[in-house]
Write a structure and sequence with these properties.
The structure is a single chain. This protein has 20 helices and four strands. By secondary structure, the chain is an all-alpha fold. The chain folds into three domains: about 220 residues, MFS general substrate transporter like domains (Growth Hormone, Chain: A, Up-down Bundle), CATH 1.20.1250.20; about 80 residues, no CATH class; about 240 residues, MFS general substrate transporter like domains (Growth Hormone, Chain: A), CATH 1.20.1250. Helix 4 runs antiparallel to helix 5 and helix 7 packs antiparallel against helix 18. The chain is globular, with a radius of gyration of 26 Å. The two termini are about 25 Å apart.
Length: about 600
């Protein structure tokens, strides 16, 4: 692969920069940042319904759009990181903006939300919001989304940069694998802490103190990140990465009417960088091969001095074309990640369910928003068990180094999402039937009346969802990381968040359509009524289960059409080896 400025900077790492001593700063920053962020997300549906008088459906749509924005922006943060500012600067800027958003959200809890009127004092439902509360709330959401857009795509890659020797030695592979496992473990434990301690503080001490704690944590995260600045290995950004992608598309468009090189054409018919191993482009997406095909008179297209293209916007190298193909090929599989975004984004509904059920275990009453911790615990335990106990026996059985292929893991995860929604539908049907039997039809989550059914009945659906996330979402990250060129690692990692963003938009559309379509003009409640006992959330979960099954069938087709994994990495490694040999020969001549 053609060496980029980022890779060259990483290859020049010395003992004075990077290494294990930077990891405590990075991991500590991640812990405090994740606890602060997820501590706000977990309980937000209750904040919207209790303080802003939103219905369950409206609050869910607001949170869907917040999640969508938070998941869309990382792709821009990745582009900014890889091509302009570098990862450290983007993470630092993102942390500052997130801190500003959290401070603004804290301000919404400090300032009064309702107008003081006699009607409001007499009946809470008749209160009217002050006009500036909603703009403050939405501004805080936007700032936190912008901040996460800088942190999410860069944190994992920045940590790996400190340890990655940029070679394929077994020691380097084990080091990176250990780092990734610890990263996911720390991430899971941080979310567990956020879903228990932070949520408990919000419920027991109120929103003002509950929102102040994440502000302090985020400030601590930023401080730790900056303290480690002198020790970090900071690779410079490489503008040529994205420029090269655009050049391929432009060159392919300009030559769209030209002849397509035959499949049997040899390497002399294509443009390769001087000093690199000549090769032909793959036959996948052949229409892009025009971008690197030489004409009848190559001397007019290539500089004789250094072998570069006279006009890089009409002639690109074979590797540039293959990089674009790698990005285009993953798009169908990437689109199957929208449905997991829908499932994960609707986790505010189980919070409302838990609030209508018995949550006392022994002498402790579990906060409604803390039941999501079972999902994260399952994810964390599975990552550790799979890596330490299952990979070796599975690899002996299947002959695959990872135990099962990445696409197999992703497919199993998609199947488990469907199972989780079916279990959720069954649990909600039983909860609703019990509520009606107890005469609680007109008592919603805000009434304080609970069904005589343990909220622990919600645990199975959370555990299955957590296992699905561990298989599918982590599988997606590894898949994009392995299929994309190293110079585009931040962009590849951000694809997961981008897919989750589209899933959040799709989820809000599904909620809106079901809420509008199941409400009749005669005053009949919709399936997604704010009063769960009058709605039919079990039907909603069945709709999601059916969509998950359809998405799984689509994934199977996409996986079959994709072909063999790792082809782009193999060819890139071959070219990287040739590049190393060329540099060594040049040094010997000098």
């Amino acid at each position: 692969m053609e060496a980029s400025a980022m890779e060259e900077a990483l290859s020049k790492k010395t003992t004075s920069k990077g290494g294990l001593r930077t990891i405590p700063f990075i991991i500590s920053n991640e812990v405090f940042e994740k606890v602060a962020t997820f501590g706000l997300h977990a309980n937000m549906i209750l904040y919207l319904t209790e303080r802003y008088h939103m219905t369950a459906a409206t609050g869910t749509v607001v949170l869907y759009f917040w999640n969508a924005l938070s998941n869309f922006l990382p792709i821009f943060g990745a582009v900014l990181s890889d091509s302009c500012l570098g990862r450290f600067r983007v993470i630092a800027l993102g942390s500052v903006v997130s801190l500003a958003g959290m401070c603004l959200l804290w301000l919404t809890a400090i300032l009064p939300a309702d107008r003081r009127t006699p009607e409001c004092e007499a009946r809470r439902d008749d209160c009217q919001l002050v006009p500036w509360q909603l703009p403050l709330l939405f501004a805080s959401f936007v700032l936190m989304s912008v901040g996460s857009g800088g942190i999410r795509p860069c944190a994992l890659a920045f940590g790996a940069d400190q340890l990655d020797r940029r070679d394929n030695s077994a020691r380097n592979v084990r080091t990176l694998q250990t780092f990734f496992n610890w990263y996911y473990t720390v991430l899971g434990l941080s979310i567990v802490l956020a879903s228990t301690v932070i949520v408990y503080i919000q419920q027991a001490k109120g929103w003002v103190i509950g929102f102040a704690v994440p502000v302090v944590l985020m400030l601590t995260a930023l401080t730790l990140l900056l303290l480690g600045s002198p020790f970090y290995l900071k690779a410079e950004a490489d503008r040529s990465v994205l420029v090269g992608l655009v050049q391929v598309l432009v060159a392919g468009y300009r030559k769209r009417r030209g002849p397509l090189p035959p499949e049997t054409a040899d390497a002399s018919r294509f443009h390769n960088r001087a000093g690199y191993k000549p090769r032909t482009p793959s036959n996948r997406l052949r229409w892009l091969n025009r971008a690197c095909a030489l004409g009848d008179n190559p001397d007019k297209e290539v500089n004789p001095d250094d072998g570069s293209a006279r006009d890089p916007w009409t002639l690109c190298t074979v590797q540039q074309v293959e990089d674009v193909k790698a990005a285009v090929r993953v798009l169908p599989i990437w689109s199957t990640g929208f449905m997991p975004g829908v499932i994960i984004g609707q986790q505010m509904f189980p919070v409302l369910q838990a609030k209508t059920m018995e949550r006392r275990v022994g002498g402790l009453e579990i906060p409604a928003a803390s039941f999501g911790v079972f999902s994260i615990l399952t994810l964390t335990v599975w990552v550790a068990v799979y890596d330490r106990a299952l990979v070796r026996p599975l690899s002996r059985l299947t002959g695959h180094a990872r135990g099962v292929t990445l696409r197999q893991r992703m497919g199993i995860g998609l199947a488990l999402f469907a199972v989780a929604m079916a279990v959720a539908a069954r649990t909600e049907a039983a909860r609703r039937a019990e509520a009606l039997a107890e005469g609680l039809r007109d008592y919603g989550p805000q009434s304080g009346r609970a069904v005589r059914m343990s909220a622990m009945r919600l645990v199975p659906q959370h555990c299955i969802t957590g296992l699905a996330e561990a298989l599918n979402l982590i599988g997606q990250i590894e898949f994009y990381y392995s299929e994309f060129p190293k110079t585009m690692s931040s962009i590849g990692v951000s694809l997961l968040a981008l897919g989750m963003g589209f899933g959040s938009v799709a989820g809000s559309a599904i909620v809106g359509a079901i809420n509008a379509g199941t409400r009749s003009g005669g005053g009949r409640d919709s399936w997604l009524s704010s009063n769960l006992n009058r709605g039919h959330y079990d039907y909603y979960y069945l709709v999601l289960a059916a969509l998950c099954v359809a998405n799984l069938a689509y994934f199977v087709w996409c996986g079959w059409a994709y072909g063999e994994e790792g082809q782009n990495r193999v060819t890139a490694e071959e070219e990287a080896v040739e590049d190393t040999k060329t540099k060594e020969e040049q040094q010997q001549k000098l």
